[in-house]
């Protein structure tokens, strides 16, 4: 894995997408000063200071295994969760790929594909932000409950060390995951899920589904049972 450090950028995902032809496969684009980060559904990822991580992994897999690419965010979710656990905290997953500690968001992931006009895959950009050493006054400005690793552990976290742990672990999983897909991590994912067997509401574009989160399927989709015992398999969406 190669590393490309940026002193400052509006978005590591945007930088990687704009330069996809010149950035090699398995390159990590990262910065400690990101001025216009984005989350899923074009949400703003709040900049929380230079002692945190804002990074994107550039991947250029072949076109043949496209069905597993949408699950790469869930793989990274597991990787991040395992690294958090090394620091003694207990992360929980909010489907599909947010990570929370004690009900507060600590990390988010955004995947974007870059394709040619003919639909040929140029690469996948797997972006993530992690609150490592966020001050309380920053957290108070975020529009949802949030925390950071230093607050949870009571200790300052070395940014470079944390990033290398994440990337090294991701590389260990990657090739097997491309071949086997979500089933490789399914049980680990479900074990950390904080939504299973609970009544939830999931927004999918303009429609909201309500019911019990019964399972996560073999391909990472959410299996929801509504009040009429009707099954809904949701590939995308947001738990409200």
Descriptive account of the structure:
The structure is a single chain. This protein is an alpha+beta fold. The chain has 2 domains: 2-192, Bira Bifunctional Protein, Domain 2 (BirA Bifunctional Protein, domain 2), CATH 3.30.930; 199-239, SH3 type barrels (Roll). Helices cover 25% and strands 32% of the residues. It contains 6 helices and 14 strands. The strands form 3 sheets. Strands 1-2-5-9-8-7-6 form a 7-stranded mixed beta sheet, sandwiched between helices. A 5-stranded antiparallel beta sheet has the order 13-12-11-10-14, with no helix packed on it. Strand 11 (207-216) and strand 12 (222-225) form a beta hairpin. The longest helix has 22 residues, at 159-180. The chain is globular. It starts with a strand and ends with a strand. The mean pLDDT is 90.
Low-pLDDT residue spans? none
If you consult CATH, what is the topology of the largest domain?
BirA Bifunctional Protein, domain 2
Give the domain tally: 2
Mean pLDDT: 90
Helix content: 25-40%
Q: How is the quaternary structure best described?
A: single chain
Can you say what the CATH homologous superfamily of the largest domain is? Bira Bifunctional Protein, Domain 2
Structural class: alpha+beta
Strand order in space, largest sheet: 1-2-5-9-8-7-6
Number of helices: 6
Strand tally: 14
Radius of gyration: 17 Å
The CATH class of the largest domain:
Alpha Beta
What is the general shape? Answer: globular
CATH-level-2 architecture of the largest domain: 2-Layer Sandwich
Distance between the termini: 36 Å
N-to-C order of helices and strands: EHEEEEHEEEEHHHHEEEEE
Q: Could you tell me the strand content as a percent range?
A: 25-35%
Give a quick account of the main beta sheet: strands, pairing sense, barrel closure.
7 strands, mixed
